Amino acid sequence: MVGCRMATNNGKMLARTIAKALANRNINIISGLAVGIDTYAHLGALDSGIGKTVAVLGSSVADEEIYPMRNTRVFERILEKGGAIVSEYGFGSRPEKHHFPARNRIISGLSDKVIVVEAKKRSGSLITANWALEQGKDVFAVPGNILVKNSVGTNNLIKEGAFLLSNIEDIFWK
């Protein structure tokens, strides 16, 4: 599950609710630990108590190199609850701008299906969706208000053929 860093309150609530519902069915949630939708996807899985969550980082997995640092507690909770933190970057690797689009291929690669909750017209979330399509994975997008910029990318994904996610059951029919 991926989406905007500068997510709306509605997007955060949807990400957390969807992730918890999936985790309650023992489905693992994979995201990137970024602020916004990623954080709330991880939190939803952690709320479940059943499912696990995996954070794919664009930096090292060393405690002092967690990015973003404000998600240190989420990082710790993921490990406490038996989830995983993964990265292709070794110790001492600082977060670099080019690391994040690259790590998106890992997020999609580890996933059976990719859900995009909010995405602007140009978004790293769309990079993840494109990787998923290239890897033969199903992409789901949560539709949004046509007047909100965080919905432009998800609405465009739906127009281009992504599966519309209007309720949790949509994930299971495809």
Task: Describe the protein's topology.
Layout: H1 9-23, E1 29-31, H2 37-48, E2 53-56, H3 72-80, E3 84-86, H4 99-110, E4 113-116, H5 124-134, E5 138-141, H6 152-159, E6 163-164, H7 170-173
Parallel strand pairs: 1-2, 2-3, 4-5, 5-6
Helix pairs in contact: 1-2, 4-5
What tags apply to this protein structure?
about 10% strand; about 40% helix; Rossmann fold; three-stranded parallel sheet; single chain; alpha/beta; 7 helices; about 170 residues
Task: Write up what this structure looks like.
- The protein has seven helices and six strands; from the N terminus they run αβαβαβαβαβαβα.
- The protein has 174 residues and is of the alpha/beta class.
- It has a single domain, classed as 3-Layer(aba) Sandwich (Rossmann fold), CATH 3.40.50.450.
- The strands form two sheets. It has a three-stranded parallel sheet with strand order 1-2-3.
